[in-house]
């Protein structure tokens, strides 16, 4: 309204031979991003959601139709300042909290974003090696595998309790001081076996051999064990998940390092596809290509 009045005044003054200066319109910042799109939510016509640095307007009823992939959504333009995420992580992590929540809309409250960012210091090269695209690809790869292992960050501990007594290798000199059935799968990559708790604890400076329960009780400890495996363990593969992503071997090699003996080389293609689909979704959220060699 003010702009219109100034323009009208300018026209009148010009007609009278007077000069009027109208302040230039400043280039306004992009609007704030509204609440992030949630695949499990129902949106009706007129509702809005943010996705991948843009605000979107629902033209009619929709559920699980990703903004940008269906005509039901109208792109309202970039938000949060030039299409960047409105809430970048103060830790410098390439995945913002809003993007993390978008990736895991039904996650267990135990798996906090702050717990994840607090764990990053244990492995500073994680999602922080190479260019921006590689950093985001590695973060997406790790989180995609984590999502598969935990049902979308829902499960903190292994669900099949019948397996619990099997994870104690009594031949190890240190044995199983926490008990025969204490070393079941826990955390984002389901750490299991007494020797893995010993190795992870030694690497992280945490006594997990005597107290493996910390992995299911402290979010940062849980995330650290996942990062320990990702950054240091080849598993049944020939390289760590970290090396697979930063050296260009591809997402398929991360699957091989985590569960290749049971899934790769045609053993369980449905499980492999589940991991790949999640990786494709997460790279799209982060705005980077997937890269080659997705399968194992």
TrEMBL record:
Q: Which key words tag this protein in UniProt?
A: Disulfide bond, Hydrolase, Plant defense, Signal
Q: Which GO terms describe its molecular function?
A: hydrolase activity
Q: Where is this region: Disordered?
A: 68-91
Task: Please state the span of the N-terminal signal peptide per the UniProt entry.
Answer: 1-29
Q: Does the keyword Protease apply?
A: no
Domain annotation Chitin-binding type-3: ranges: 34-76
Cited Pfam families: CBM_5_12, Glyco_hydro_19
Which CDD domains does the annotation name?
Answer: ChiC_BD (cd12215), chitinase_GH19 (cd00325)
Entry-linked Gene3D superfamilies: 1.10.530.10, Carbohydrate-binding module superfamily 5/12, Endochitinase, domain 2
Q: What is this protein called?
A: Glycoside hydrolase family 19 protein
Q: Which organism is it from?
A: Streptomyces lateritius
